[in-house]
């Protein structure tokens, strides 16, 4: 598909053939924890022999109709990463993959390379290019979106991770007729990855939060106020933690860990759910672990989330619902600037199959 010696301009970088001289830089990059984590085919304790083996395999890929290219510095040609495209499938499309060295990140290198290779693939006649990205790999998903790829689906247990566990992947695609404009993110990630007021810290829920999150969801006081009164299973907790960042980037919901800013300890969870772009509205929910109640953490967390939502998203209205008897939660909402609006009769399911009224609160964009 691509001539062996072709050099493809890509803004701040070029896509060029791989050389044996790239081996040492590849070795350095392949010790990076993120590359090791998200590219399970990269051997552990990567050596120069592994790099040379990869370079030979790259030649075989080209013979089969694919291409493996180096991402090189535009001025010096120095190796900054790899990008490749597999041989076309029986349907004509092809899967693209890339990795960028730690020292080259944060400069738009991957986005520029992906845009350039995608354009070259379409010029060669391919009808579709695809990316399969681990649901936990926020950086790679943001590259895909910035390069104009569209999120299509979560493909369940499509690949094995390094432990042998079958992992879910997100499918992104690009077509020749697409505009190529960066995908609009209705819910951008927090600036710098977190929000804090010095007392609490908010960050996307992750797998490291699974154990305390499961304990929180098992707390009797929390379970009594859940909309789904049976609470999540252990498998559902793990899935929510693993999928939190991809659902956030998709604009579906934001699942957030509340942490003690001083100790880093997990203190509770916070959600922005039922996101409705048509109404510019979303629902807030929260729970605190027993050891962190009575400190004002919930009020601080809800207020931080509301201020972020109104300054970084198109949302104009945040709502929250409480059981009539949940006075503690109602006090949190009142202190966080929410106003009581209505009582929705039989608006919430409760344990045992019954229904109770939903006291509806709202906070509006200033």
From TrEMBL:
One of its GO terms (molecular function) is protein-N-terminal-alanine acetyltransferase activity. Residues 25-176, 200-366 form the N-acetyltransferase domain. GO terms for cellular component: cytoplasm. PROSITE patterns: GNAT. InterPro entries: Acyl_CoA_acyltransferase, GNAT_dom, Ribosomal_N-acetyltransferase. This is N-acetyltransferase domain-containing protein. It comes from Sinosporangium siamense.
């Amino acid at each position: 598909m691509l001539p062996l010696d072709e050099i493809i301009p890509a803004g701040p970088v070029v896509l060029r053939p791989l050389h044996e001289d790239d081996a040492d830089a590849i070795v350095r990059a392949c010790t990076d924890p993120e590359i090791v984590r998200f590219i399970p085919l990269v051997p552990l304790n990567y050596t120069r022999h592994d790099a040379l083996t990869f370079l030979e395999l790259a030649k075989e890929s080209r013979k089969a109709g694919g291409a493996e290219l180096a991402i090189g510095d535009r001025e010096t040609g120095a190796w900054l990463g790899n990008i490749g495209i597999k041989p076309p499938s029986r349907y004509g499309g092809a899967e693209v993959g890339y990795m960028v060295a730690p020292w080259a990140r944060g400069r738009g290198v991957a986005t520029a390379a992906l845009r350039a290779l995608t354009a070259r693939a379409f010029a060669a006649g391919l009808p579709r290019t695809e990316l399969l990205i681990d649901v936990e790999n926020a950086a790679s998903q943001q590259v895909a979106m910035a390069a104009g790829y569209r999120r299509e689906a979560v493909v369940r247990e499509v690949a094995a991770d390094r432990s042998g566990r079958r992992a879910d992947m997100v499918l992104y695609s690009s077509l020749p007729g697409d505009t190529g404009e960066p995908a609009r993110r209705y819910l951008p990630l927090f600036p710098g990855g977190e929000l804090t007021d010095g007392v609490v810290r908010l960050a996307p829920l992750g797998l490291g939060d699974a154990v305390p999150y499961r304990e929180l969801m098992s707390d009797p006081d929390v379970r009594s106020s859940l909309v789904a009164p049976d609470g999540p299973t252990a498998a559902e907790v793990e899935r929510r933690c693993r999928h939190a960042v991809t659902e956030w980037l998709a604009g579906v919901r934001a699942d957030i860990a509340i942490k003690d800013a001083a100790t880093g300890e997990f203190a509770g969870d916070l959600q922005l759910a039922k996101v409705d772009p048509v109404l510019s509205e979303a629902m807030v929910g929260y729970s605190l672990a027993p050891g962190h109640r009575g400190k004002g953490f919930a009020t601080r967390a809800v207020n931080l989330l509301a201020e972020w939502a109104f300054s970084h998203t198109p949302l104009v209205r945040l709502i929250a619902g409480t059981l009539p008897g949940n006075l503690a939660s109602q006090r949190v909402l009142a202190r966080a600037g929410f106003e009581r609006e209505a009582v929705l009769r039989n608006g919430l399911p409760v344990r045992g199959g019954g229904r109770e009224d939903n006291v509806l609160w709202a906070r509006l964009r200033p």
